[in-house]
Amino acid sequence: YLACYNAVNMKQEDCNMSQKSLSYWLKFVIIIMALCALAVHTAASLMLTVSEAEEIDKLRMPWLIFLWASAIPILFAVIISWKTAANIGIGNAFCMQNAKHLKNIAICSAVDATWVLIGETVLLLLNMNHPGIFLFSMVIVAIGVAISVAAACLSYYIKKAADLREQTELTI
């Protein structure tokens, strides 16, 4: 979409093509991110499932429940992101619906980061977690918080842009 702003003499058809192209790229990135999340969850689940260590037996179910529950907000964020990319593809990047979508993505990310923080802490206190895994998961929490803040900021600015667009359309 930035290409539309940067090219002063760009025709409307070219701008629409670039929006479609951007939408396809966003969808590609969304698919890659979703597959990465699925791969991480699946790999962790397989490691828990195939391990024959006695101490893993008591940890297996709590960890599997915790792990796959953390995937629920990610799934919602992927679906919402897809809808946002679709809106961009039809030339509706700066709309209230995308502002709402980004706000919901921010909420999903905050919920997931909070879930991971609480779950990892509880599992650590119950002696069902290793301190190294806990520290690594804090990186995941930090990334989740960063995504949440970025999505909330984008939501705010897209809402402002949508308001300006509506005012401009009413003026014309």
Characterise this structure.
- This protein is mainly α and 172 residues long.
- The protein contains 6 helices and no strands.
- It has helices spanning 2-6, 12-50, 54-69, 71-89, 96-125, 131-171.
- The two termini are 23 Å apart.
- 19% of the residues are buried.
- The mean pLDDT is 89.
Sequence-ordered SSE layout with sheet pairings:
Layout: H1 2-6, H2 12-50, H3 54-69, H4 71-89, H5 96-125, H6 131-171
Helix content: over 70%
Helices and strands: which structural class? mainly alpha
| Unreliable residue stretches | none
Query: In percent, how much strand structure appears in the residues?
Result: under 5%
Number of helices: 6
The ordered H/E elements are HHHHHH
What does the average pLDDT come to? 89
C-alpha termini separation: 23 Å
Based on CA atoms alone, the radius of gyration comes out at 21 Å
Overall 3D form: elongated
Q: Main β-sheet, in a few words? A: none
Oligomer: single chain
Q: Give the number of DSSP strands.
A: 0
